[in-house]
Amino acid sequence: MTHVSIKELTKVYPGASEPSLDRLSLEIPTGELTALLGPSGCGKTTTMKMIAGLLDPTSGDVTFDGRSILKDKPENRGVVMVFQNYLLFPYMSVADNIGFGLKMRKMDPAEIKRRVGEMLELVKLPDLGKRKPSALSGGQQQRVALARALIVQPNVLLLDEPLSNLDAHLRFEMRDLIRSLQQEMGITTIFVTHDQEEAVVLADRVALILDGCMKQYDNAEAFYKRPVDEATARFFGGQNFMSGTTRGTVFEASFGQLQLVEGLNQGSGVLTFRPENVLLNGDPSAPNTLEANIADKIYLGTQTRLKLRIGQENVDIITNPSDVEGLSPGDLIRVTLPPQTLWMLTS
Amino acid sequence: MSTRKSLITSNLRVLTGLVLITWLILPLIPLAIWSFARGWFFPDLLPKTWSLNAWNYALSDTAGVLDSLWLTIGISLAATVLSILVGVPAGRALGMYKFKGKEIVELMILAPTIVPGIAVVLGIHSVFIFVGLNNTVPGVILVHLVPTLPYMVLVMSGIFANYDASFEAQARSLGASALKTFWYVTLPAIMPGIIVGGLFAFLVSWSQYILTLLIGGGRVVTLPLLLFNFATSGRNDITGAIGMIYILPGIIILLLTARHLSGRSGAVGGFGQI
Question: Taking CA atoms, what residue in A is nearest to B190?
Answer without folding.
Answer: A91
